[in-house]
Amino acid sequence: MENYTLDPLNPRTLDPGLSDPAIVVKNLTMAYGTNVIQRDLTFTVNRGDVFIIMGGSGCGKSTLLKHLIGLIEPAIGQIFYGNVNFWEMGEAERERFMRRFGILYQSGALWSSMTLAENIGLVLELYTNLKSKEIQEIASLKLSLVGMAGFEDYYPSEISGGMKKRAGLARAMALDPEILFFDEPSAGLDPISARLLDDLILELRDSLGSTIVVVTHELASIFAIGNNSVFLDAATKTMIATGHPKILLSDCENVTVRRFLTRGEAAPEGGEGACFLT
Fold first, then answer.
1. How far is CA 93 from CA 28, 46, 84, 100, in A?
2. Which of 40, 140, 254, 277 could form a disulfide bond with 243, CB atoms 3.0-4.6 angstroms apart?
3. How confident is the model at residue 135 (pLDDT cuts 50, 70, 90)?
4. Residue 163 in 3-state DSSP?
């Protein structure tokens, strides 16, 4: 496998060895010891998707994200990135491969003692051979991409919650990742800031061509940005729906999915079968 390289003149470095689809999950079971969280998960994330991982509280959304980004190994099943079996790699090879990912955590996870530019620059210092001036230029570029030009010397304590999310996104983009993972990106934001972040996610997807995977239960965001999804059910401990969220809203007859997508306002009629729609 080729090593990851960063082209500072190119906003995104693609590996031609990776082909569509971007991610394929096959027969995945997630468990902590003997406690099964979810079983028999099989779904595909296509290149260019904004893919939503959704479901009620405690269903395993964030746990699934941790499996996808290499923090938790599956109990059973496989995860492919293109034609690469992620969990069959050696540990060192998998860690190098993970540099293709960008991750935005709920809190933004910025280092409070560093400026925003230093937060972004730290990633570049660790994983590239770029010179200091080049790192500064890229940090400024990433901040400008998220609408924060001129905030390079600000500390996290000096900016709002919404700005912290955007700065965290700029850092997630530092290595020009092929895939961005967001864990509850709208959590703690007011409706206007959440909408602005949704708009930014779509702009980045369209301008950079990235594939984006989002864990969220925010319906406004799900319908605004998602074009594909998987629905995890805590009661049955498996997936009960996949497809475009708006199509699931109109066509899925599973009562659990319908009530979730309508904030509990849907009539109780409906079955319990799975809704695997395209």
1. 22, 24, 11, 12
2. 277
3. very high
4. helix
Q: Are 104 and 182 in contact (CB under 8 A)?
A: yes
| 31 bridge partner residues | 36
CATH superfamily of the 23-102+178-276 domain: P-loop containing nucleotide triphosphate hydrolases (3.40.50.300)
Burial 180-203 (b: 16+ CB within 10 A, else e): bbbbbbbbebeeebbebbbebbee
- Position of tokens 């395209």? 278
The residue to which tokens 């809203």 are assigned: 249
Please give the Cα distance from 58 to 221 (Å, whole number). 19
CB 148 within 8 A of CB 119: no
DSSP 8-state assignment for residue 166: H
- What are 152-196's pLDDT values in tens digits? 999 999 999 889 988 999 999 999 999 999 999 888 888 888 899
pLDDT at site 207: 86
Task: Check if the beta carbon of residue 20 is closer than 8 Å to that of residue 46.
Answer: yes
